[in-house]
Amino acid sequence: MTSQPVSPDALEAALRAIGAERYHNLHPFHRALHGGTLTRPQVQAWALNRYYYQCRIPAKDATLLARLPTAELRREWRRRLVDHDGDAPGTGGVARWLKLTDGLGLDRAYVESLDGLLPATRFAVDAYVDFVRDRSILEAIASSLTELFSPTIISERVAGMLQHYDFVTPETLAYFQPRLTQAPRDSDFALAYVREHARTAEQQAAVLNALKFKCGVLWAMLDALDYAYVVPGNIPPGAFRPDPS
Ligand SMILES: O=C(O)c1cc(C(=O)O)c2c(n1)C(=O)C(=O)c1cc(C(=O)O)[nH]c1-2
């Protein structure tokens, strides 16, 4: 028996339920980051690894942009590339993330070299880029829907980190301010697209799975940080080793 599709409202409710259950705000490493119980080297490890996510996001968006069938869709999606890459050197989200790693005392050339990444960070982020390249346009767009939930976590993170860490300043966290308007704009568009185009039960199941997959990418990145930098003795060979000082 084939199942029947649900209404767009019911689909949206199911997507939001996935976020409520699986988004990375619930991960113990994020709770520790925002709650002030991490050390400076642990915060450095988070920012260094998360840099890989930031710098692969424009590549992920560019592979999708190339496949979008209409100028209208491409115009919408290309804004994301500008948000991340900027339109001049030193502008855009990736450059702003490097201000965050600078502010935490990490060497910029080392961060950009990607030499210190955890292996699992690389695997998780690459899996996201591959997913968007290989799956249907509908699934690719649905996989960006974690951004429905990011303004809440970003607000919690900025408030928590400023309150708890004397080595963090508002300038260091400047990356996050524009995301509070960019993410809702992007996720409103992606949600409207998914509500309109996920018509069959199979398509609806595929978009729910795409969002679960993406929650898994973000969760796996934090699992890797937790394992390597919270449990003593677990830093993989070649990965970032905090200064003993
Ligand atoms: O700080 C966060 O917790 C967070 C989460 C997410 C997300 O949910 O994928 C993104 C971002 N930040 C972000 O800054 C960002 O540029 C971004 C792009 C995307 C995407 O899937 O295209 N997600 C996110």
UniProtKB/TrEMBL annotation:
Transmembrane segments: none annotated. GO terms for biological process: pyrroloquinoline quinone biosynthetic process. Residues 13-223 form the Thiaminase-2/PQQC domain. Keywords: Oxidoreductase, PQQ biosynthesis. It catalyses: 6-(2-amino-2-carboxyethyl)-7,8-dioxo-1,2,3,4,7,8-hexahydroquinoline-2,4-dicarboxylate + 3 O2 = pyrroloquinoline quinone + 2 H2O2 + 2 H2O + H(+). The keyword Phosphoprotein does not apply. Pathway: Cofactor biosynthesis; pyrroloquinoline quinone biosynthesis. GO terms for molecular function: pyrroloquinoline-quinone synthase activity. Its EC number is 1.3.3.11. It is an enzyme of class 1 (oxidoreductase). Ring cyclization and eight-electron oxidation of 3a-(2-amino-2-carboxyethyl)-4,5-dioxo-4,5,6,7,8,9-hexahydroquinoline-7,9-dicarboxylic-acid to PQQ. Belongs to the PqqC family. This is Pyrroloquinoline-quinone synthase. It comes from Gluconacetobacter johannae. The lineage of its organism: Bacteria, Pseudomonadati, Pseudomonadota, Alphaproteobacteria, Acetobacterales.
